[in-house]
Amino acid sequence: NLKHTMQSSPLQSLVDDPTMLSTSHLPSLHALAVQVQYNLQYQHSWTDLRLHTHSPTANEPLPRPLLSGLPPERLYVHPDEQIQLLKDAERRRKAKQKEGEDIGILDVQARPELEWLLPTRLGEKWTLRRLSEVFNVITAVPPEPDATDKDDHRPTNPWRATKRLVLATVGSDSTVVYYIVHDGVVKPRQN
């Protein structure tokens, strides 16, 4: 007697859960969000992925479903933060060298941060007005998955001064391409 257990796919759970489809969003937009969520989880090792249908600021419906999640590595490091990380790493290196420890490789890692994601299709036309509508209803950082205080959406990173999201664009062959989009002008990175 062979016992076969099938794991439900994210798309199937979307269909099985009537609360997922009870918003003003089209089912195709929910399916798109779930497709991007699946890609992030299984192809890019993101964690704490959540689907959002309502704004965390006003609890009103979002213009379309958004995702939030934690990437395995930091996606964007502000240039000033990059300089500070290098200074801190150099300070640690000098302290280890003074104590006679093996210096090894200079560790300059920025901790990952929660990110907003906007699932889109390749053929969609995005204008500054449409992006602005999305930025107007999100917080600087997504709420923590286990957050109880709905009003505390301040970034823990002092260099994260503007809102940003990851534009997840799905092609006709299911390829997903990711772009970081900032709300406003952002200082360019140093190479």
TrEMBL record:
Domain named tRNA-splicing endonuclease subunit Sen15: residues: 35-191
The organism's superkingdom is given as Eukaryota
Answer yes or no on keyword Iron.
no
- Gene Ontology MF terms: nucleic acid binding; tRNA-intron lyase activity
- Is Hydrolase one of the keywords UniProt gives this record? yes
One GO cellular-component annotation of the UniProt record comes to: tRNA-intron endonuclease complex
Pfam families referenced in this protein's UniProt entry, alphabetically: Sen15 (PF09631)
**What keywords appear on the UniProt entry?**
Endonuclease, Hydrolase, Nuclease, tRNA processing
Report any one BP term from Gene Ontology. tRNA-type intron splice site recognition and cleavage
- The family this protein is said to belong to: Belongs to the SEN15 family.
Q: What name appears for this protein in its UniProt entry? A: tRNA-splicing endonuclease subunit Sen15
**Organism from which the protein derives:** Clohesyomyces aquaticus
